[in-house]
Amino acid sequence: MQGKIILICDLLVKYGGVAPKMAEEAHSQVIDQVVQEALDKAYMTEKDLTAVAVSIGPGLSLCLREKFLLSVTHSSVHVLHNAVGVQKARRIAGGFNLPIIGIHHMEAHALVARLIEKDLQFPFMALLISGGHNLLILARDLGQYIQLGTTIDDAIGEAYDKSAKWLGLDLSRSGGPAIEELAREGNAKSVNFSIPMRQHKDCNFSYAGLKTQVRLAIESKKIDAKIPISSASYEDRLSRADIAASFQRIAVLHLEERCERAIEWALKMEPSIKHLVVSGGVASNQYVRARLDTVVKKNGLQLVCPPPWLCTDNGVMVAWTGIEHFRVGRYDPPPPAEDPEDYQYDIRPRWPLGEEYAEGRSEARSVRTARIHPSLTSLIQASLQQ
Ligand code: KG4
Ligand code: ZN
Question: What is the pTM of this model?
Answer without folding.
Answer: 0.89
